[in-house]
């Protein structure tokens, strides 16, 4: 039996999902409002009926959006309050680093919540109603660290509770031991958190 031919990407017959611009979604919504049927819109725009129904179901987001031509994805805008929280938090972290204090994820998240509460208290009551609750979650923390580039400041677990002076003394003693015994650098291994199986 002869081997089967592998079809190339263009011959495979699989249709790639079509990205629909916000502008097109607005047109679909407007035409449906003026009496066009879902099946007619699907044929006109070469879009599945189910997709047209989904656009009509979620019609408020595209209608309210003021985006550039060709944009296909709507994302939630970041609250300005959160930007302010992160700026103040970065200043606080830098002060801690200069003072030689160690900070970890828990401490940073607690401080972020505290700053957020303080800033929220200064806003007028009419503008606070629309602001979502800030939780200082792990996802927020990871994103914050990536954006700001503060990975060297954050110390987790054992690193946060380590004795730096004792570690420096051990390094000197160990280097002297390696030198006295005649070992070479490729004979030295780091065996942190190992186990036998």
Ends apart, CA distance between termini? 48 Å
Helicity level: 55-70%
Q: Gyration radius, to the nearest Å?
A: 29 Å
What are the segments in which pLDDT stays under 50 over at least 5 consecutive residues? 153-157
Number of helices: 10
* Largest beta-sheet characterization: none
Question: What does the model show?
Answer:
Among the domains are: 22-64; 80-159, no CATH class. 56% of the residues lie in helices and 0% in strands. It has 10 helices and no strands. Helix 2 crosses helix 3 (49-57) and helix 5 (80-99) crosses helix 6 (105-122). It is elongated, with a radius of gyration of 29 Å. The protein starts with 21 loop residues before the first helix and ends in a 16-residue tail after the last helix.
What is this structure's SSE topology?
Elements: H1 22-33, H2 38-45, H3 49-57, H4 60-64, H5 80-99, H6 105-122, H7 125-128, H8 138-148, H9 157-161, H10 164-181
Jot down its keywords.
mainly alpha, 197 residues, 0% strand, 10 helices, 56% helix
Briefly say what this structure is.
This protein is mainly α and 197 residues long.
């Amino acid at each position: 039996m002869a081997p089967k031919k592998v079809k190339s990407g263009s011959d495979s017959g699989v249709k790639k999902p079509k990205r629909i611009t916000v502008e097109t979604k607005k047109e679909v919504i407007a035409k449906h409002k003026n009496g066009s049927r879902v099946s007619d819109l699907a044929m006109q725009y070469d879009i599945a009926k189910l997709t047209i129904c989904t656009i009509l179901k979620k019609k408020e987001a595209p209608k309210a959006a003021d985006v550039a031509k060709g944009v296909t994805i709507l994302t939630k805008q970041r609250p300005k309050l959160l930007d302010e929280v992160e700026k103040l938090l970065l200043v606080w972290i830098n002060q801690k680093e200069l003072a030689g204090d160690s900070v970890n994820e828990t401490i940073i998240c607690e401080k972020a919540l505290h700053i957020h509460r303080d800033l929220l208290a200064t806003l007028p009551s009419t503008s606070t109603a629309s602001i979502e609750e800030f939780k200082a979650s792990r996802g927020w923390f990871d994103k914050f660290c990536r954006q700001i580039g503060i990975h060297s400041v954050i110390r987790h677990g054992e690193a946060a509770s380590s004795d730096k002076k004792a570690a420096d003394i051990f390094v000197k003693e160990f280097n002297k031991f390696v030198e006295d015994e005649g070992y070479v650098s490729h004979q030295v291994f780091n065996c942190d958190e190992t186990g036998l199986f």
